[in-house]
Amino acid sequence: MKEHGTNLAVMDLRKLINKVDDSYERIKLLKDVYKGETIYLVTPGPSLTTHDRTKLLEKLKGKVVLACKQSYEYVKEVATFHLMSAYSYQPYEYYSDDTIVHWQLTAMNLDGEVNRIKNEWKHKADIMVPCYSTPWVDMFNTTAFSRRFSQFETYSDGRIIWGPGIMYESGFPLAMHLGAKEIVTIGWDIGDLSKFEKNNNFKLGDEKWVKEHAHTLYKTHAGSGPDYRELKETIDSTKEMYDYFFEKGIKVRILSNSSPADKRFERITLDEI
Fold first, then answer.
1. What are the residues facing 101 on neighbouring strands?
2. Sign (positive/negative) of CA torsion 187, 190, 191, 193?
3. For helices 228-236 and 238-248, angle between their N-to-C axes, nearest 10 degrees
4. What angle do CA 253, 262, 33 make, to 5 degrees?
5. How does pLDDT run across 41-99, given as a tens digit for each residue?
6. In the chain, is it the N or the C terminus that has fewer CB atoms within a 10 Å radius of its CB?
7. 254 strand-pairing partners
């Protein structure tokens, strides 16, 4: 598959996984199909829409692009995968039938979410992977809180671990499973602790958070956002994340002017893609 990211290559990849019906078997077929390549991991942080869309699409053309949730609306013409969950769900009209739609399901409510996706929402689903949270995994054993980034590797066993957040649950794990030698994040801004009150209180549905995130990509309510502790642990854990990727020989670069991730991650501009 020399032309990874082109329409032909994506079509070939869909043909490959459609040889089997079982989702886990499809996951196994994806192992290392993009080995040694750069994978572009796009998420709908506030910085995403600050990039000129035409220029961004041109830069990503012919690349392997994983678009998380609402970021698909900004890069739909070049999305290889669309990563979804039942949280903050909104319907999508797909630019191409060749985009592989990947769902992470809450393991505790597996049957309910499958029913919603297929019967209520009637949404496309090429791959479904259970994400284990409570009652099996508590907050202290999430990837961010525990700093056990080797949990990314459970993806290859057909399961993912509570991150929290789709980047920690599907984004980075899938990129690794596909064989990425380098990962470039776009729109991965994580969050800003300074926006919280000094007493660290945070009310669900905080209008400031919603206003910041509910930009044009969202067709539905953007949600309430993380609480202070969850956000702080996610940010702080990027120190150990950097060490983990360094040991794995995977380079991660960040296209964002506001990401609070560890400073050792190289920051780049759109021109450097």
1. 82
2. negative
3. 30
4. 35
5. 999 988 999 999 999 999 999 999 999 999 999 999 999 999 999 988 999 999 999 99
6. N
7. 185, 267
Residue 259 three-state SS = coil
Contact predicate 138/162, CB 8 Å? no
pLDDT of residue 205: 44
For residue 2, being part of any structural domain is answered with: no
> pLDDT averaged over the chain?
89
Structure tokens given for 115: 């029913």
- Rounded to whole angstroms, the Cα distance separating 102 from 250 reads 23
Domain assignment present for 195 = no
Q: How far is CA 130 from each of CA 104, 147, 170, 225, 241, rounded to the nearest angstrom?
A: 6, 21, 10, 22, 23
Q: Which of 137-141, 185-189, 212-216 is predicted least confidently?
A: 212-216
The first and second tokens of residue 12, run together, are: 């070939």
Per the listing, tokens 């797909």 go with 94
Q: Report helix, strand or coil for 125.
A: coil
pTM of the model: 0.90
Residues 6+ apart with CB under 8 A from 223: 87, 88, 210, 213
Q: What is the spatial distance between Cα 212 and Cα 148, in angstroms, rounded to a whole number? A: 30
* Cα 253 to Cα 103: distance, rounded to the nearest angstrom: 25
Q: Does residue 214 lie in a domain region? A: yes
Judged against a pLDDT cut of 80, whether residue 223 lies above it is answered with no
Q: What is the pLDDT of residue 207?
A: 53
* Residue type at position 115: N
Q: What are the angstrom distances between the C-alpha of 210 and each of 46, 85, 157, 223, 249?
A: 11, 19, 35, 7, 37
Q: How many domains does the chain have?
A: 1
Confirm whether 202 is domain-assigned: no
